[in-house]
Design a protein that fits this description.
The chain is mostly helical and 251 residues long.
Length: 251
Amino acid sequence: MIYLGLGMWIVGLPLSLIVRHKPEKYGYLPDGDQGKIAVAGTTPLQGTEININARQALRNRAFWHISLALLLQSLALNTVVVHVMPYLSTIGVNRAYSSLVASAVPITSICGRLGFGWWGDRANKLRLMAIALTLTTLGLLFFGWSAFGGLWLLLPFIICFGLGWGGSVPIRVALLREYFGRSSFGTIHGFTTGVMMFGNVMGPPIAGWVFDTWGSYQIIWFIFAGLTMVSIAIIATTPKIVKKSNPMANP
């Protein structure tokens, strides 16, 4: 932990100081915008970008669709991370193999982040979020059923759950940017993360209580799978974006 902390000082802080701010300051337009390149040091060109402030976003149905869907997913994600090794020990998996499974999930999530990030530039982001939530649901079903159908089901669990978890991360950010713009992005993303945090906090204690009460984790995995199925319906019914054109400004 000391080495990690020192590494953050030596590597992380210097790198953070060279991260650039808005692209218009450097003569570029935001990704995806069409038109001439703005000249650095001049008034940037304005396109048809949505800019909704945090108060307006909180009154917007789309914000709550996205946030509630992610809340339900967060219930499952953090619970699996916390309870994966205790659960596997209850179904006869030794500690060494359990640690491999626990490590494989976040590693697989990296593939989801990279893959869905690339895909998100080329496809409908709501559909991609629905796909990520579907993968999360399938992963939970494989995870819960591994106690009955055999330990080979842990492989599709790792693939589906890891990709669903990782894929939802870049798509969440891109989706909020697409719906609400950049002007209040930090505040809006913070509110969304705050809603998700309720799921992160509530999930593990609920799963622990279920195990202490009934002596089994299976029921909670299937309940969470049902909740992530609900999240698919929530994200699929998110209202569409209504873009308003802004007047063009001359450089």
